[in-house]
Design goal:
It is built from six helices and no strands. The chain has 125 residues and is mainly alpha-helical.
């Protein structure tokens, strides 16, 4: 079930929400999400590098990747779907999932490039 949720259900939810709510005005208002995503991953890499000082070299890079790329991508979507309408009104869930979707787009690109290079995963096979 976890694989189905991560591989099929969450992307379908994001595609559905983004398709209904993304407008040029929203993207213009949400542009700070892109540098925030990059900053988040950079801080994670930095903290991971600090935490692994003095560790064997075979542990350092995977540990930095683990600190930079937390495994909680679907959790904010679930929380905003459940809590958003109660706290911020009926349109809050759609807008919140749109912002999360824009963030995840940047985050996943960084995960597939920087994370893959930290784990020595070949990008092209």
């Amino acid at each position: 079930l976890s694989n189905a949720a991560a591989s099929l259900l969450v992307p379908c939810l994001l595609l559905d929400r983004l398709g209904r709510t993304v407008t040029l005005e929203l993207v213009a208002a949400a542009w700070p999400i892109i540098p925030i995503g990059i900053l988040y991953v950079s801080i994670g890499c930095g903290l991971g590098a600090i935490a692994t000082v003095g560790q064997p070299s075979h542990i350092r890079r995977p540990s930095i990747a683990a600190a930079a790329f937390a495994n909680s991508n679907a959790m904010p979507i679930i929380l905003i779907e459940v809590i958003g309408p109660e706290l911020f009104g009926p349109g809050a869930a759609a807008t919140g999932v749109t912002y999360i979707g824009l963030y995840l787009t940047v985050y996943l690109v960084l995960q597939w490039t920087i994370g893959a290079s930290l784990l020595d995963v070949p990008l092209l096979q």
